[in-house]
Amino acid sequence: METVNCVICGSPEQRPLFEKASRTGILFTLVRCPVCGLQYVSPRPGPDEIGAFYSESYFTERTDRGYNDYFSEKTRLEIERVIRLNLRDLGFFEFEKGLGAEKRVLDIGCAAGYFLSLMNDRGWETTGVDISPSCVEFARGAGIAVYEDDYLEIAFARPFDLITLWASIEHLHYPDRFIEKARDELKPGGRLFISTCRAGGLNFMRLYGKDWRFYNFPEHLYFFSRPAIKKLLEGKGFRIVQCATYGSGFGKAGSFTRKIADIMAKRLRLGDMMLIAAEKV
């Protein structure tokens, strides 16, 4: 286990919030930085140990830590639906119109490549990165160019117009380094899209306490509020150009109650997920 400083302000000070067990029964502690307010897990498994907390079932069995058959056609269609909504909320289609004929996108944590398949259909040159062998195999089988590697260890010959982190930044050991590298690999005026769970502010997470659906330790290591992620991005040479929230986690998935709660979360900006579009400056 490693104890880490805050990735935003560098403070070594930590205020414990609560403990929660992993699916294997190991207790982990969520802490809060008293300087900038960032929530994160510390101590935590190092990059070489974290893989033991993921398994093949993470993508095939529905739990609070995984998916319900991520590789199924039903899941693909639902993910594509959410992606299209996210792209709209992030101003993607207007951004895309201002680009030239050659458009390049990199998806970090691309999983099965569903987003990149959509971008291929729109005429983009696509590249993905993921560390899950099963996801990489699936994406490559669909014709997606994917690296099975740590993004921090890869060098790209040409810059990108768009880099995305869809529900990935909360899993990263070094989100600050990822964002810094992403900025270096974007074209001038290029954009970074992030979706992640939203801690802090007035949102549906407040209903659940430590039982919040995204407090999955240690698969999720970081929990950003909007001010926290804004500070991180601005410190790495980005400015936020668009933001939105969505999702409630309230009621049973697919139920009328969930649908109404999700509508409220969207319209009233109470979502426990947030979307950020940031431009390289």
Walk me through this protein's architecture:
This protein has 281 residues and is α/β, with parallel strands linked by helices. It is 26% helix and 24% strand. The protein contains 7 helices and 11 strands. Strands 6-5-4-7-8-11-10 form a 7-stranded mixed beta sheet, sandwiched between helices. A 4-stranded antiparallel beta sheet has the order 1-2-3-9, with no helix packed on it. Strand 7, helix 5 and strand 8 form a beta-alpha-beta unit. About 2% of the residues have low confidence.
Q: Quickly count the helices.
A: 7
**Spatial order of the strands forming the largest sheet:** 6-5-4-7-8-11-10
Query: What class, by secondary structure content?
Result: alpha/beta
Span between termini: 37 Å
Rounded average pLDDT = 93
Shape: globular
Which consecutive residue ranges, at least 5 long each, have pLDDT under 50?
A: 62-66
Task: Note the quaternary state here.
Answer: single chain
> Strand-and-helix sequence, N→C?
EEEHHEHEHEEHEEHEHE
Q: What Rg, in angstroms, do the CA atoms define? A: 18 Å
Helix content range of the residues, please? 25-40%
What proportion strand?
A: 15-25%
Please summarize the sheet with the most strands.
7 strands, mixed
The beta-strand count equals 11
